[in-house]
From TrEMBL:
It is found in: Nucleus. Keywords: ATP-binding, DNA damage, Endonuclease, Hydrolase, Nuclease, Nucleotide-binding, Nucleus. This is Mismatch repair endonuclease PMS2. One of its GO terms (cellular component) is MutLalpha complex. Belongs to the DNA mismatch repair MutL/HexB family. The keyword ATP-binding applies. It comes from the Eukaryota. GO terms for biological process: mismatch repair. InterPro entries: DNA_mismatch_repair_CS (IPR014762), DNA_mismatch_S5_2-like (IPR013507), HATPase_C_sf (IPR036890), MutL/Mlh/PMS (IPR002099), MutL/Mlh/Pms-like (IPR038973), MutL_C (IPR014790), MutL_C_dimsub (IPR042120), MutL_C_regsub (IPR042121).
Amino acid sequence: MSDACPDPAGAIKAIDKNSVHQICSGQVVLTLATAVKELVENSIDAGATNIDVKLKECGVELVEVSDNGKGVEEANFEGLTLKHHTSKLRDFSDLIHVETFGFRGEALSSLCALSDLSVVTCHESMQVGTKLVFDHKGHLVQRSPQPRQQGTTVSLLQLFATLPVRHKEFQRNIKKEYAKMLHVLQSYCIISTGVRITCSNQNEKGKRSTVLSTNGSHSMRDNIGAIFGPKQLQTLLPFEQMSPSENIVEEYGLNDAELPKQLFTITGFVSRADHGVGRSATDRQFYFVNNRPCDPLKVTKVVNEVYHMYNRHQYPFVALNIAVASECVDVNVTPDKRQIFLQEEKLLLAILKSSLITLYEAGANKISLNYTHVPSSKSLDVTANICHIVPSEENIQEHLGSELQSPKVSLNLANLKAVFSNHYSTNAGSKTGTAKAANGSNNSGPAQKTLQSFFKSEVKPSVSDCSLKSPLKSEKSVLDGFRYRNKSSGDAEEEKDSPLLMTAITELKCSGLEASFPGAIDVPDDKDKEMFDDDVHTEEPEAQSEPFASKEDFLLSPDTKRAKRTTVTLQFSLQELEGKIQRMKNQQRQKAVDELRYRRFKAKINPGENQSAEEELKKEISKDMFKEMEIIGQFNLGFIITKLNSDIFMIDQHATDEKYNFEMLQQHTVLQGQKLIIPQKLQLTAVSENILMENIEIFRKNGFEFQIEEEAQVMERVKLVSLPTSKNWTFGPADIEELIFMLTDSPGVMCRPSRVRQMFASRACRKSIMIGTALSVSEMKKLVVHMGEIEHPWNCPHGRPTMRHLANLDIISPD
């Protein structure tokens, strides 16, 4: 028998070094932007003044970064790509004073694990360069001489090829990865004064084009102009640092006496707050701490909040560098070093807020948006006179709990069809008669049934014109149970008794309970008389009295309220009534629970629940289902009622037709262009020029025509020769920039500028079926089928819902 014992299942062991290397490498380099960033930072740390970034097919095939820095000494060839080998640190204490971009010794080692990495370098002390080839573990496997001037070139072939899932995702989203990489590279171009940085890309046809270039200027402003053009420079204001005001110091909870002086020094530029000067998104906001690009979320929030005080519909261009002592900042937070911790961060925010407010307040073109609306006394009077505040039927249901709420509708399919059948068979005169009949049913008598309350006090008033609307638990509940009644001039007040309570009283009476309950009951008609004994005496009701102004008014003797009054003794038990109501509550609660259990559509027809209702429709209704919907009828000459299986839906005929017309205009309309006499220079950035040239067909469908000279200098390769026009609508360079921004996130996808969408929405609205138009069954069916032919059928271009769920015939009352 062997002495070796098998390891127990689940034993804790050390992971082998190769696996650790692969796992950790995938955490350090996540994207194309991270890979390029690490190589550019190495070049800047090496003292380079010229950095050239070359990509092939946007980085899928090749990423190459060359510089003219110091180069790599021969003694460092072996440790160049080993994990945690660096010349920047010797121990942890050096981290506090580190001033270089890199310091962990992880970047090249991780890139070795994720791609085929090779290096060509020539140190300043060497006459001939050397080519180094490394394996995925970071070990040097090949070394050969190669001519090169002083500096280093790092090449990455097939990035992420060792991680199949990530590699496939990388290839699928390469356009987005490429755009993010350019944005990160722009930040280094802005802050790296005295360094010339260029970036070029070679497409699959072998043609190379420059997408980014700076001139090596020692001015941040010049670098911004080189990247974004002189047009952007015209909108910039230099940032002027100010001490925080007393109000802002108090807002951030700072103690002015204890604040450190000159801890932060902020320099840079922000755009003016004039309308039309800002950006539609935060795509041009760059923040630096000690010249290191970073993403300080709180700083970004403060800058945008202050800007929105003066231009609430746009975002500013921002390029701010925050200089602070190295011991007051921690850059070792995330693998990409983009998140940074700062001491006295509240002080920094206070300085920024005060400085920006002062800067924008001093602007000559300041526009104040601080409008205050003061409601007029008339509107207040109208609101006050709408109603007297009293518990209503809805209040009682809310008091009993949300689970007691009744279902949406109480109907069945036969009744529903009968309603629409009658609707189509009636004319305008019958509609009037129906309305009168409806009004008559609501006012079945000049007075409604009322129940006299029970009091223990010696005063035993006879109460008139009141309704008990809540469960009787005490004498005080009667006083609290009055509902206030709306008044309108010339109309009698309308009261309704709780169905719950009246049903309970009926059952109590039938059971012959023996209890004394003094009260007065007004019975308006013969039907209601059947609920009570023959002992109940009634009189002809008089004109309805005014609502009670107070409890004292309520307790007045009956002689002061009415000249004649009949008082009867009713057999009644308060405890039995409370028990009946409790049992009915339990039944309604169980019914509500059962309904929610089987209900797929839970959102109500309420503006506050539009998002929930839309999500439910997206989940439950597919495009094919619209063809299967049965047309029941048209409601109020504006809504189509349809049935799908056991579900009833209501469709807005105008909104759905408008959305269909809008999407058809979006897809098929080719705007006609107006030729310009002289081609207009757009001065687009290199990135924007490339996006425009790659999506030129989308611009043509939007009515824009360009003259493209690919051999010209960057920012002069594209000229505008034709603008779209349509009646009173005109478009310009701002719409081109918006299209470019949209295509950055969704390259190749047909899209329209917001102003073109507004024009299409206006046209679609005018040509659609209006509310008030009677439709035949075939016309209604056509509108419903169209909903299944569009991409987003749930709301119209103006945000109005097109469809809502009404009821489910399986869970509603059969009556």
